[in-house]
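Subject: Predicted fold for Multidrug export protein MepA, 433 residues

User T.R. writes:
Posting the sequence so we have a shared reference for the thread.
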Amino acid sequence: MKNFIHYVSHSIAGMIGISVYILADTYFIASYSGSDGLAVLNLVLPLYGMMNALGSMLGIGSATRYSIRKARGKDVSSFFLQAVFWNAVFSIPFLLAGLFFSREILALLGADRELQELGIPYLRTILPFAFFYMVNYTTSAYVRNDNNPSIAMMGSVFSSLFNIVFDYIFMFPMGMGLAGAALATGISPIVGSAFCLIHYCGKKNTVPFGWQTPRFKHLCACCQLGLSNFVGEIASAVTIATFNMLILNLSGNTGIAAYGVISNVSSVCNAIYNGLAQGVQPLMSHSYGKKDKHLLQKYLQYGIVTALLISVIILFFVNYKSDFFIALFNSENNPDLYVYAKEGIRLYFWAFLFVGINTLLVSYFSATNNPKPAFLSSLIRGTFAIVFFALLLSYFWKMLGVWLAFPCSEAFSLLLILYYYKKEQKENQLSPS
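User M.O. replies:
I've generated the structure tokens; pasting them so everyone works from the same file.
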């Protein structure tokens, strides 16, 4: 239990730190540009989801395989630098897109001409930082898997503090506007990764920095265990993009701004669950590598109980403080935005009764070298289910149906994931890789 609390508490704090700088962006942008700025930020959130997805697949997948192989005494000398290399490769399209195709991307995401003009400086600034945004997952995941979750947490905290302070400095005293918000957010993961150097340069570091010619087979093997993280993160992008398109047709830019309030508060809640899953992952992977099934199940049970407690707290707190969150991002006191956001919060956040267990069980599959159910569960949960329920329910109940789509999707996904878990237990698939 002591190890569980140590790893999970530090990981949750670190993930909240990462999500806080998205909230800082939202608050300052809403203060600077009102509901249009909030709408722009919500329209570009899927791009953050894509960077998160690739970064987590490469970083967490590589670190998970590293932990399992290390526990079994196998060679892991080139894992870290190969993960960094592939992050650099996968970041190139974001760099080029930001520099040359910002307007086209915003138009594709549903921005009208006015929102495009507001959003182009933001995209042109943030997307060239894609490598640092993505590689931050690798640097922090390896630190956690090298028995130092405290450093990973502190890196996230200092990264967020930097973003909050410089969001304000760049946007207001320096007059850089949305480009300033993007610059602060882009530099933040550099701060987080740099802080991890405390571990990598210290005596406790056991992560080797050997170099081999990059191997596609190695990439696939690591991505296989990170695929559920990829799909889980991309699910956020799919959800936001789907909701944006539906809401634009149903209630225009004001509806998008209202969803911006909900999606940003939701991102913090998701970060807590991701922190729980990422915190317990090294413990489960190590137990699996050592073939200690009893300890593995104990860590999973601790995780489920923790997820349920967090769910109850989130549901109570978000509903109780809904007016506070809406006012925080509604600087213009737009009454339509308030009505949409109030109804959305009341319905949308029931999903978090299921999100925690879903996230934890998917992480369990990956941590125990069982990528197939992790991938299928994440894929159905993050794409097919949410799109199906969003289209179906919005057709019958308009905005009410949009808000109900997320809870219905997560409830359905829980049934599917529990089926895979029961099947795995029955067939006793905990076998060495």
